């Protein structure tokens, strides 16, 4: 092998390593639990019209993102899955059922506590989105990370300002990272993002 070829190979390896490192950082920082924590707090404030909405927003984030994430970590500890990504589609169903149950329980608390309508609509939208993810996942591996990243931006744009649509750059980054890490195809991330964006339809009836 010539020195030029060796140099090229080494350069490609370094480039791939950097790309993977960046993708890993993006997918970890913008993972569903983090996106939902930030997004639901913002939706809670908008729904309540003041800072008291933070409490409702945190409850939403807890039920939609933090509890499911903790469940995944618990299963990892038991050796059920290798990491939070659960790359085997056939093993994902329990996660969706936990999310549905958690969001449902949180929504009941919100109803009993007279939570603002806006946060309840957001919870309903996420619940329906999860049903969609579960249904698609039975036959095809759709991207959950992309769906959540898209839903958060779309919901914030509806309850706050259309300017939030600029944050779709972060959703695109999530989609890219999932493909770069080999967890999903482009089609799977686009489908996830489209399903996430569709959550805003709930506000047409809310």
Characteristic key phrases:
206 residues; 8 helices; globular
What do these coordinates show?
This protein has eight helices and no strands. Helix 2 runs antiparallel to helix 5 (117-137) and helix 7 packs antiparallel against helix 8 (186-197). The mean pLDDT is 92. The N and C termini lie far apart (66 Å). It has helices at 3-29, 32-48, 53-77, 93-112, 117-137, 144-159, 168-180, 186-197. It is mainly alpha-helical and 206 residues long. The longest helix has 27 residues, at 3-29.
Element layout with pairings:
Blueprint: H1 3-29, H2 32-48, H3 53-77, H4 93-112, H5 117-137, H6 144-159, H7 168-180, H8 186-197
| Amino- and carboxy-terminal Cα gap | 66 Å
Mean pLDDT: 92
User: How many DSSP H or I helices?
Assistant: 8
Query: What oligomeric state is this?
Result: single chain
Helix and strand run: HHHHHHHH
Secondary-structure class: mainly alpha
Describe the structure concisely for a colleague.
The protein has 206 residues and is mainly α. It has eight helices and no strands.
């Amino acid at each position: 092998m010539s020195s030029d070829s060796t140099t090229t190979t080494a350069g490609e390896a370094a480039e791939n390593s950097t790309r993977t490192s960046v993708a890993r950082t993006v997918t970890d920082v913008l993972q569903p639990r983090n996106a939902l924590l930030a997004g639901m707090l913002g939706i809670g404030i908008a729904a309540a019209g003041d800072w008291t909405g933070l409490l409702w927003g945190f409850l939403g984030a807890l039920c939609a993102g933090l509890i499911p994430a903790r469940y995944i970590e618990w299963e990892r500890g038991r050796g059920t899955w290798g990491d939070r990504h659960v790359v085997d589609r056939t093993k994902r169903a329990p996660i969706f059922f936990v999310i549905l149950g958690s969001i449902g329980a949180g929504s009941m608390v919100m109803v009993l506590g007279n939570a603002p309508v806006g946060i309840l609509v957001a919870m309903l939208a996420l619940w329906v989105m999860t049903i969609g993810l579960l249904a698609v996942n039975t036959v095809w591996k759709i991207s959950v990370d992309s769906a959540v990243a898209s839903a958060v931006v779309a919901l914030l744009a509806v309850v706050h300002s259309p300017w939030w649509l600029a944050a779709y750059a972060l959703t695109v980054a999530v989609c890219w990272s999932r493909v770069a890490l080999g967890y999903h195809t482009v089609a799977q991330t686009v489908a996830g993002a489209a399903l996430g964006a569709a959550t805003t339809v709930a506000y047409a009836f809310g």
